[in-house]
């Protein structure tokens, strides 16, 4: 099972994934004002490739955005591609007219 923990401060944050207590991946973000954040990097440890680690971290980011009324700008290629594939996640994306 994948566990995702969030670390956040006023300017930056990340979602870190763990499998059986081992660090499996990291998704970093930067705040762009108070209402939105930019997912700028996603990495998954080679040992956990193909196990859905990246998607779990993205789902945690989406959940955080929904619960807190925030929007996401996906600059990271992985995050951008995942949002494009999953229409049900796109409600948290920054509207192009807002950017």
Report on the architecture of this protein.
This protein is of the alpha+beta class. The protein has helices at 53-68, 77-85; strands at residues 2-8, 12-19, 22-31, 36-44, 71-74. It is globular. The protein starts with a strand and ends in a 14-residue tail after the last helix.
Number of DSSP strand runs: 5
The share of residues in helices is: 25-40%
Radius of gyration: 13 Å
**Unreliable runs, pLDDT <50, ≥5 residues?**
none
Strand content: 35-45%
Continuous helix count: 2
Summarize the structure.
The chain is α+β, with helices and mostly antiparallel strands and about 100 residues long.
Throw out a few tags for this protein.
Acyl_CoA_acyltransferase; five-stranded mixed β-sheet; 5 strands; GNAT family N-acetyltransferase; 99 residues; alpha+beta; globular; Gcn5-rel_NAT
Question: Topology, please?
Answer:
Layout: E1 2-8, E2 12-19, E3 22-31, E4 36-44, H1 53-68, E5 71-74, H2 77-85
């Amino acid at each position: 099972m994948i566990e995702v923990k969030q670390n956040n401060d006023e300017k930056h944050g990340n979602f870190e994934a763990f499998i059986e207590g081992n660090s499996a991946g990291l998704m970093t973000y930067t705040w762009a004002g108070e209402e939105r954040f930019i997912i700028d990097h996603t990495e998954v440890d080679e040992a956990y490739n193909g196990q859905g680690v990246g998607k779990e971290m993205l789902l945690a980011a989406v959940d955080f955005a929904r619960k807190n009324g925030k929007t996401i700008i996906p600059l990271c290629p992985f995050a951008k591609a995942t949002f494009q594939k999953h229409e049900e996640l796109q409600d948290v994306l920054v509207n192009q007219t807002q950017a």
